[in-house]
Amino acid sequence: MLITFFIPARFAQASSQTLQNWYLGVIAFFVFIGIFNLIKINVEKIQRHLRDWQYSFILLFFLGVMLGAGFIGGRDSRIFLYFFENFQVPLGATMFSLLAFFVASASFRAFRAKTPEATLLLIAAVIVMIGRIPIGYLIWHGFPDLVEWIMQVPNTAAKRGILFGIDLGLISMALRVLLGIERSYMGGGSE
Amino acid sequence: MCLIFFIIIYGINLKAFDTPNDDGSGITLKWQTDIQYQSFGIYRSAEPTGIFEKIGEVDGTEITFLDSNVKIGKEYFYKISAKQDTLSIFSQVIGPAKAEVQYFNTSRLPMAICIIILFAAVLGYISQARKGGKLFIRKIPALNAIEEAIGRATEMGKPVLYVPGIMDIDDPQTIASMSILSRVAEKTAEYGTPLYVPTSRSMAMTMAQQVVKESATRVGRPDWYNSDNIHYITDDQFAYVSAVDGIMVRERPATNLYLGTFYAESLILAETGHSTSAIQIAGTAMPDQLPFFVAACDYTLLGEELYAASAYLSQEPVQLGSLKGQDLGKLLFIGVILIGVLSQILSWQFFINLFNTIE
Questions:
Q1: Does ipTM surpass 0.85 in this model?
Q2: Which of A72, B20, B170, B264 is the most exposed place for a label (fewest CB within 10 A)?
Q3: Quick check: B214 and A170 CB within 8 A?
């Protein structure tokens, strides 16, 4: 895959594509393994009446309903869409919306001016927060430009520094894996 | 009836050439005109004096056209018509141009050189380590804290929760996470502490089960391994988060480890974990999620440290050698950045162009 990145010729791109297709084929098979595992764990929970076993029953019931609706009527069937749009989507949105409250609670802890670095973070955060809302512009017309500068210059510079490190780390790890020095990800010990 | 004028002029500067760095499937046309036209028609023929067939039309703002319907090695001749209201002006016939297969993408040459240098540096240090050379690696507090955090969970008689991210095993971060899981599983198995690994991908689950099982066997505790503790939940991002949050609130693990690829769920997980008073260690190579983990967790592996973790934890000279090579790469990048800044200030066009060509 690494070599094909540098070779535009058709044979190289085709072999790269073939490998990716194999991966997709394997993934499709693994969906069944995932579902089997889910059923196994939850059936055991119900059989042994473990704590909160009732939730497992609800999970398996709706898994059956969705699978049945999907197999019989396809993804566009009324029952499938009903449960997806009225259960899955709002529940997902509810979890996502929790983020707003968690950002507030995490910021409250992070923005305590205990050290010079934390003070700097606090000042930058206050400027960005004020500059992002309409009242910031009314307080001082320069806030939005200052926010833009903070985001584009110091923030981007730090982010790029991290990205360089990430890419180098990735290359180093890839080499360890390719050379067989690193095998722990497959359950094996190291060299 | 409107009158259409066909005038052959040579004011349109047209060029046709083999598309660089492709698989031989294209010829690129590039043109310059003195004035703005409404549209351009593209014509092609196999003979300079043959019948020209119209193969495309582009907007007047365009200055290039890619003819991707060509046969490798066959010669083609081109001309374009510039259209303005009822007036069409033709360029001169250009050619022959033929598409050829390229076996090396020259625009990626600087990248290839960087990778070769990095590979050489990593291999050099690995070889030095094999010969018994001493290597100094800076301390990574988050990794030193892992054993301490597992020890804490053991003392409290509570489980350890390991979240390997939400991506599949084609993601390098998940691979790195599995390597760390191997070390974590060795310690938890040694101490007899329960280890929960809920996964959002079935393939990652299978891999995690194998990793944990092998680790337990390695430390002589195969009986400790329980496959039910490493289970699949769902591929859906927020359904997975709610399930993991549920585990945190019900089982109250004393240690939460979030290592892998995370998106918006990072803060939801970390804040829920914080509310259960668990010691939390996170690591990801997603720059946008790092601030959330830094704010909500006790220790965070920043970007590259996630990839370095397994080598660091193993403390094996050969693996540590690869980390030294990585550091040399960083030095190289710093040097290139400095030369880049100087090149811009002093207008060293060669160096600027070298990196401008990277795709």
A1: yes
A2: A72
A3: no
Structure tokens at B227: 């496959």
Helix ranges, B234-303 (H): 237-251, 265-275, 290-296
Token pair 């993408």: residue: B105
Task: For chain A, say whether B229 makes contact (Cβ under 8 Å).
Answer: no
Other C-beta atoms closer than 10 Å to the C-beta of B57 total 14
**Token pair belonging to B234:** 């769902």
Cβ distance B303 to A162 under 8 Å?
yes
A162 neighbourhood in chain B, CB within 8 Å: 287, 290, 302-304
Domains of chain B: 5-98 (2.60.40.10), 106-124+318-356 (no CATH), 135-315 (3.40.50)
Is B195 at the interface with chain A, CB within 8 A? no
Report helix, strand or coil for B131. coil
Kindly state whether A14 is in contact with chain B, defined as any CB-CB distance less than 8 angstroms. Answer: no
**Burial status of residue B170 (CB atoms within 10 A of its CB: 0-12, 13-18, 19 or more):** middle
Classify residue B99 by its DSSP letter. Answer: B
Extract the tokens encoding B219.
């430390």
B239–A88 CB contact, under 8 Å: yes
CB atoms within 10 A of CB B194: 17
- Cα A4 to Cα A76: distance, rounded to the nearest angstrom: 39
